[in-house]
Amino acid sequence: MQIQDKIITSIPVFEVSENLKEVILFFEETTFSHVAVTENGEYLGVLSEHDLPCFEPDAPIEKFRYELGTFHVSKETMWMDVLEMFSRNEANVIPVLDESRVIVGYYDLDEVVAHFIDTPFFKEPGGILVVSIGTKDYSFSEIAQIVEGNNAKLLGAFISESENDIVQITLKIGSQNLNEVTQTFRRYKYTIVFGNSDDQFMEDLKQRSDYLEKYLNI
User: Fold this and answer.
1) 3-state percent helix, strand, coil for the chain, nearest multiple of 5
2) How confident is the model at residue 209 (pLDDT cuts 50, 70, 90)?
3) What's the pTM?
4) Residue 123 and residue 157: Cα distance in Å, rounded?
5) CB neighbours (10 Å) of residue 48?
6) Three-state DSSP class for 27?
7) What is the full DSSP assignment across 108-169?
8) Cα 2 from Cα 76, distance rounded (Å)
């Protein structure tokens, strides 16, 4: 999935020799988290909106040279890496550079996420399943085999959480009935974190729990 057409050029770029007055005005009038700074036309870094209380209108941007963030992407950066860059830097805008470190524009988080939501992962009908397993015990080829072995289509999968050597993997499956898929995942020692409400295993547990409760209340 290509996102180069999502590069926007309407956000300003400031030279390090300029005063902070215009930067202050920019942050006060927008909701962007960062803005890029250049030196002689070449990318130097980004100022953060979080530093706004420290800005002095008549002080040069140069005063904050060593406080600048340095994150950026290139036009060739893949969309998943762009999303990761947004997340790692808690930013909603990222400068895009060419091979000469000249800023060609920015990626806006809202635009990139909207593009992502427009993919088959979200648009195609199907069910969402979240499974977890040890970091060393999973493979995407096995996951695809489990899904497709139950005559279902795997529309997408990604690691949505990783902690304490356990990963959670979110799957979009081209079927609303995930019973057989979830049962197969369990046979392969995956834990079902989230599945559609028609998961028969969970329904059976609920029925047995209800029966036990009624029995104990007799």
Assistant:
1) 40, 30, 35
2) low
3) 0.66
4) 14
5) 18
6) helix
7) EHHHHHHHHHTSHHHHS--EEEEEEEETTS--HHHHHHHHHTTT--EEEEEEEEEETTEEEE
8) 9
